[in-house]
Amino acid sequence: MVSKFSIFLFLTVLLQLGSWAKSASTLENFIQCVSINSEFSVPVTTTLFTPNNSSYSSILQSPVFSLRFLEPSVPKPEFIFTPLHDSHVQAAVICAKQFGLHLRVRSGGHDFEGLSFRSETQTPFFLIDLVNLRLINVNIKDETVWVQTGATNGEVYYKISQKSKVHAVPMGTCTSLGIGGHITGGAYGSMLRKHGLAADNAVDALIVDAQGRILDRAAMGEDLFWAIRGGGGGSFGIILWWKIKLVRVPEIVTTFNVVKTLEQGGTKIFYKWQQVADNIDEDLFIRAVNRVVALGTNSTDRTVMNIYNGVFLGGTDRLLKIMQASFPELNLTRKDCTEMSWIESANFIGLFPAGTPIEILLQWKSAATQPALFKSKSDYAKQVIPETGLEGLWKLMLEEDAPTVMTIPYGGMMSRISESAIPFPHRKGIKFMILYQSNWQEGDKNATEHINWTRKVYNYLTPYVSKNPREAYVNYRDLDLGRNRHKISFREASAWGQRYFKSNFERLVRIKTKVDPHNFFKHEQSIPPLTL
Q1: Structure confidence at residue 325 (pLDDT)
Q2: Largest CB tally within 10 Å, which of 13, 205, 395, 400?
């Protein structure tokens, strides 16, 4: 007599075999379809990877910044496609639609919530990884650069520097970011106060839309071109190329690092930083990074350390005059300052050690953002946090193992660009952006407590930050603000959409409804169409 367990085991095996056969059939159909619809042949062995392939795990994991989303419980893509040509991406969209496949798209892997390579709601899914699409064409005569979206900030900076010492692009401080997703969220860096965001300086793009067409700015129209410059990635199509306007930089810039602890008057100095950072000379960018450190080599006592990273578009003499007039409390001296080329300052603000060759920018590495287990949240401040408020913040930081609170100054050009010029709305009236982050080590059983710490800090700072809506930066994705479920609701999406985009959210929804009414491109915080 056959036992119930034997029957159960037999049925389980049948289901697994059926699932595997269906998956294999889907992959075969996808491969054939992509080959038919591509201008160039698709070398399957070097572009398609399944979990059975020895390279699958390394390709999935290698660029990932947030290690939380590589844990075994997180759903993984059925396969990874790493296209070698624009037409491969176009074909992948056509074929995904034909076979009803869900997809995610990754250009760099720095998505804070992992939405570029994982899915909570659309399973199974496959991943299009743009890592091989990294061409960079610099045109100094026209003062522009065309960049494929798998290239990193560091690669772009380096290639421009090889053509000109007085040109650059105002992109991010993290050199390993893939620019595809970076610019779709706005993209700020050390020149935001002088030249605005990378998205403000994007003048053209190539995109694969929901119909599988490759469109440039003229073909896509001004509405869609507006939407992709700051409206967040994964909603309107797959960006293939960005064309960015180059900006002029001086041959010599000046950098500095000044460190203060609470015992050295750190609270009062940071209080003054808040007052001046957004209205000081716009050639000057001073980032404040607050961390917890031990008071001494053998001490168990801890304190908060305030690190002021500065990049000035000019020489030391003028910088010292500006600082003496506007921010003497920092006590910046000539020995704190180092003059260098702009490309060397990209290494500096990226937190590479002094003397690191600029060729490090060609590697998929970042000193500022190493892969880690972490949770982050963002805010925007329109007023100065009082000293009593800062003291409460320091107290919260000292409760956590490895916290970071980073503040980015706004003002300058950021205040002169209209909130509606592109979807990124955080402009006039913003003094600085805040990023809070908790990091922990693999094996730490208190992950939930670390995540809850970021929420505790977020709640604590409520009286001191923007309101109605409480603004947030879309490139620092935060699913605590809300998420799309299986049934997408405009009302529910507004909970996070208003925070990221303010009143621009409604226009983004109208454009989404027009260009992708069936919501082919979607994720947990993608722009919803009105028709759903």
Answers
A1: 98
A2: 205
CA distance 177 to 209: 23
Per-position DSSP letters for 373-393, written without gaps between them: EEEEEEEEESSPPPHHHHHHH
Q: Nearest 5 degrees, angle CA 503-CA 508-CA 513?
A: 135
Predicted local distance difference test score (pLDDT) of residue 532: 52
Tell me what pLDDT residue 70 has: 87
Name the packing angle between helices 490-501 and 504-515 (round to 10°): 120
Q: What is the CA radius of gyration of the chain?
A: 24
pTM of this structure:
0.93
- Contact between 48 and 31 under an 8 Å Cβ cutoff? The reply is yes
In this prediction, the residues of the chain whose per-residue pLDDT falls under 50 are 1-21
Q: What angle do CA 72, 51, 126 make, to 5 degrees?
A: 90
Please tell me the distance from the alpha carbon of residue 374 to that of residue 46, in angstroms, as a whole number: 32
Question: What is the residue type of 178?
Answer: G
For the chain, the distance separating the N- and C-terminal CA atoms, rounded to the nearest angstrom, is 53
What local confidence, expressed as pLDDT, does residue 27 receive? 86
Token couple for 45: 């062995």
In this prediction, residue 365 carries a pLDDT of 61
For residues 80 and 59, what is the distance between their CA atoms, to the nearest angstrom? Answer: 8
H or E element: which one contains 223? helix 222-228
In contact, 267 and 390? CB cutoff 8 Å: yes
Residue 245 phi, psi (nearest 5): -75, 130
Catalytic residues: 476
Task: Write out the DSSP string of 495-526.
Answer: HHHHHHHTTHHHHHHHHHHHH-TT--S--TTP
Give the span between the Cα atoms of 100 and 103, in whole angstroms.
Answer: 10
